[in-house]
């Protein structure tokens, strides 16, 4: 499927405004922990964890590289639950080991209520270049060789952009 596609657009459900935020908090929020889990299972007729056993670790690493880390256990935490990895909506991946959709929910927990607890969905999908991308999606064109990394990076970029929005809102409140 992907060998015949010359370019692929990676679309994420995040507004363009969120990615283009210019404001940056003076002291970015530090997170004490990033925990990625996958709640998808064989009961949902999916085999993504068998095909991509490293996806949870890779996503954890990608998000951790994009946020400010802290050794203080009282700082906020990020929990990500990957709920779906599929190829054109089908959670049973084929022998070609390809996927073009990844969905999850991100929970930011802040026991100190510095930023407040928050939750948001992250949906990343790859579309062929000739498909119209829905309004509100941001597109990035990865090469075929970088497809897996682009999907993981796209998901992590959305999480990082949401954290940046929290930083920006916090900076505005502190003015």
How would you describe the overall organization of this protein?
With 175 residues, this protein is an alpha/beta fold. It has one domain (2-13, 26-174): Rossmann fold (3-Layer(aba) Sandwich). The chain contains four helices and eight strands; from the N terminus they run βαββααβββββα. It has a six-stranded mixed sheet with strand order 3-5-6-7-1-8, with helices on one face. The chain has a two-stranded parallel sheet with strand order 2-4. The longest helix is centred in the last third of the chain and has 28 residues, at 147-174. The chain starts with 7 loop residues before the first strand and ends with a helix.
Quick summary of this structure?
By secondary structure, the chain is α/β, with parallel strands linked by helices. 27% of the residues lie in helices and 29% in strands.
The average pLDDT is 77
Number of helices: 4
Task: Provide the β-strand percentage band.
Answer: 25-35%
* Class by SSE composition: alpha/beta
The coarse overall form would be globular
Number of domains: 1
Strand order of the largest sheet: 3-5-6-7-1-8
Radius of gyration: 17 Å
Helix content: 25-40%
The termini sit apart by 52 Å
The SSE order reads EHEEHHEEEEEH
